Amino acid sequence: MNRLHSHLPLGMLVMLSWRNIWRHRRRTLITLSSIAIGFALAVLMIGLNDGAHNSMIRNAIKLGEGHLTVQPRGYIEAPANHKYLTDGTTLQEKIGSLDVAGRIEPRISLQILASTASNSVGAGLEGLSPLGDQRADLLRPQLVDGTWIEPGDQRGILIGDGMAGKLKAKIGSKVVLMAGKQGGDSQAQLGRVRGIFDSRVDELDDYLILSDIQLARRFLEGEGADPALQPITRFALFLDDPDSLPEWKAELKAAVENDQVVVLDWREMMPQLVQFIMVDDTGNYIFLVLILIMVVFGILNTVLMSVLERTREFGLLRALGISRYHLLWLVFCESLLLSLLAVGIGWIVAGAVHLWFASHGIDMAALMGGSTEMMGTFMDPVIYTELSGERVLQLTLLIFAATLGSGIYPAIKASRVTPVEALRT
User: Fold this and answer.
1) In 192-270, which ranges are continuous DSSP H helix?
2) Residue-wise over 382-403: b if at least 16 C-beta within 10 A, else e?
3) In sequence order, which residues have a C-beta less than 8 Å from that of residue 314 and are 6 or more positions away?
4) What is the value of pTM for the model shown?
5) What is the pLDDT of residues 370-389, one digit of tens each?
């Protein structure tokens, strides 16, 4: 009897593998279904997690100091009222000459003591452009009483509802704004409450006072700044395309950074938020590992059972001249085809789940008891799943690798079959 040629053509290898995985149709379908469901759960959890994180980041950037910040070197390590950019006019011209695709907002940030006849509290005074600033645009709809300040208002201030309660202030109340000077003296300005806002972030509502930039600049003049040069504390840059941040940061550093001036991105300005997201992502990766373990055991069970049931068949193939090497590749090819099917069906199910939640979202405010405040920022009330191209590739490769890897042991076991022992089984 002629022996089988030791070489199996690729087409025959694929055909035999495809036939073998469908020998037990029900078992294969159950395995693929479990993988698809697990895949969909992983995509849903990671998509919602990324959506929540991106929502927090977007709101933190709007409430904070933008995608990029130009400010005095050393300010973030040790904030002080005497640290400011002396020549705001020239610096703004340099930044403007770069034609940054976004908005450039001058701001003055000061640490002050706010006092009324009833109480005194430490506060942060933020002088900005009342119209057009991103922070102003975000907080204006959150006004719960009074009116927004107008440009050039030399006395008007806006306070959070938390601070209004502490100071027992209402619309029209006088608030004394007092700040220490570098030499040890103090200076004060009188403000009048024009409006009260509820930002949905207690830290801001209890601490932040907004004013026109001209009112805040008076404190810098008290530190010796020349008003003709328009001194400021920082420039907040809001980019039209957040993905272009690395390029614009590099250009700004080359154009304006020196011993006195530094360019920082939002990650450097908000390290606590970055750390929180990293910790939260770790929890999601643990969940993904559990999904992968389920996938691995599901595939391992299917392929290993298939191998054990075909011991006599493998023995016969070995007796007819098929090498261990080609027998290993035959079983491994079955795992490969099963992996491709798992990823394909998994993305059909997971993609449908993602598209539904990307359109309808999930009401996080209801799940969190009405408050979505977290780490000095807040999530939008309704969160939609978000998946970047990098995340899609990551999930695909993880599921594919886990599925394919689970077929290694059964393939090795099949290749070790000896004809005599196998034919006796």
Assistant:
1) 202-207, 213-222, 245-256, 266-269
2) ebbbbbeeeebeebeebbbebb
3) 307, 327, 414, 417, 422
4) 0.77
5) 667 776 777 888 889 998 88
